[in-house]
């Protein structure tokens, strides 16, 4: 329930409906827009809002819905319901095009079964009755005309008409040429008079040719005669035309009789087309508003995050300006917000934004606010906005306000949203303030929810001392002397009357006189509010700076932790590889020792043989220790500059690898499919020509294969979060290794959980520079672009 009825006009909801109507393709869609009203059933609100959201997704991210022809077939179905009445060719053509649109829409959603459940519910259990289309197509052609072969009799009549017209034309051409040869005709060719083809004759020759005179020229010198022999042929054509018309009517009556049993189904099809046009218009308007679907709640509460007034936003968009967003919360604890602050500071706009967005949401519309906003359900909307004085009802401005207050106090309850602008004004402030306070006290006892704007100090004090009421103020820039249009909850605001008067240029003596006239207590209160607001702004600026630095510090800490994890993971790989190499060396050494002992035993301790075996063992051991003395030489070699793409040899193992990345004193190396992190001092640079050809070819082929098979785009829609993150990690590693500048991750919108998890995960990578949403026309925040360093 909305009270008074003109509240929807004052809040701007009527204008919203007019803007939505402009997007409708049909009159039936516009009629549905006219019927939009706030709903009070949670399930209905949820269904209507989700239908709009799903259609918005289709418009932004899917193929166009095939709704080219939308005709109001309800009236045609009702006409066909009457026995003996028949639809015209054009009306049947409209039915045919509308049915084809219905069937195309049903096929569209069947191909996407489950993707748009709320839109699919619009035609649930609605059959595709092709028999109607087939019956119409047998009679009506692609241009909306009766087919010549719609019946055998019609086909015969059309053939006879063509023959008779051809014969009549031949005859009149023959007579015309003969008259011309005799010099009887006037200047000009054959002409049509009264629907008949006639010969123009000079008036003095009209007796020389038998026929029927249809007309004469303005001067009377020329007459237009239809020859007698042609007259009978044309009459025959006319009779055949009447026969044709009777046959066409018979066919249309027969087709209408065929259509009549399906009238209930036609009405259902009409309903579907109307709803589709209606939902489409709401979705297009939501795109224009950059609106989203908030969280829905069954409680009588509202929390708006980054909300904008729709009409103000559209006006500002034309002027290439932006609207300052509104953040506010009204719930069971913080039931009524008492907003104060300077004139023209945005108090009324803030209040109207809350009221209008709440009505829009309960009417099933998306709202221009963050998707994390919460919208509850109110059963009543009471508003006192503007001047409602009435000469007819003998009501002054204040009387009109009091009449509304009377209704509010009698009928409001915990499910009522009350909006009162400039509460208590219109009479002597000495009496208006206490009356307004008393009304607010009654409304608060009824636990209503609402927003009140005021300049009265007693209401600010009352809100400060009363549970359920909360002060709020519109911020004001003291230095620049202009409003900031930001709503701040928790403290009242000053009216800045003297500051604004001073800025406007009111004489100093006037201001001084005014200050002397106001009470000392009021002056102290107003000065205190101004000082508090100034200090609050300073604290707010400092807080923002601290938060900015804290964010940078957290990011630096995350980068450090990520690097440490990366190093720890690679340390395990290097240690594992070293252990495998050590095990292999030990195996070879054991085998060599065993062979030496066996050889000594076989030679039965022959001195020369024993000496030779020991020398061989010593040489083998020294060969495995040759890397040790080269450390100094390697250190010299390490002084050479190493770049990405260079080939190096690991000093301890002698393995050759290629440099993928240089990170301070660490190198990330590629050895076949293996990636390893090695200290710079543990490798020495080698020339490319010294690298074995098989290693170079293998590495080149692998890189080429990965480059040709890799595409910097990944679709993780439908995946579980863990699987999606694992897939992204692999794809990101390849993108970094192959040197791609960016990566496109398609995760969809949904509830935004997957998007948040992915972005939080990617922030841990130091190689990730920044992340951005795709353009709104190509997917918006359903796609994340990851830009790499």
From TrEMBL:
Subunit info? Answer: Homodimer. Binds to stalled ribosomes, contacting rRNA.
Q: Which organism is it from?
A: Olivibacter oleidegradans
Give this protein's Gene Ontology molecular function annotations. endonuclease activity
Q: What is this protein for, i.e. what is its function?
A: Endonuclease that is involved in the suppression of homologous recombination and thus may have a key role in the control of bacterial genetic diversity. Acts as a ribosome collision sensor, splitting the ribosome into its 2 subunits. Detects stalled/collided 70S ribosomes which it binds and splits by an ATP-hydrolysis driven conformational change. Acts upstream of the ribosome quality control system (RQC), a ribosome-associated complex that mediates the extraction of incompletely synthesized nascent chains from stalled ribosomes and their subsequent degradation. Probably generates substrates for RQC.
Query: Smr domain: which residues?
Result: 714-789
Mind telling me which InterPro entries this protein's record contains? DNA_mismatch_repair_MutS_C (IPR000432), DNA_mismatch_repair_MutS_core (IPR007696), DNA_mismatch_repair_MutS_sf (IPR036187), MutS (IPR045076), MutS2 (IPR005747), P-loop_NTPase (IPR027417), Smr_dom (IPR002625), Smr_dom_sf (IPR036063)
Protein name per Swiss-Prot or TrEMBL? Endonuclease MutS2
> Where does the source fall among the domains of life?
Bacteria
Pfam families reported in the protein's UniProt record: MutS_V, Smr
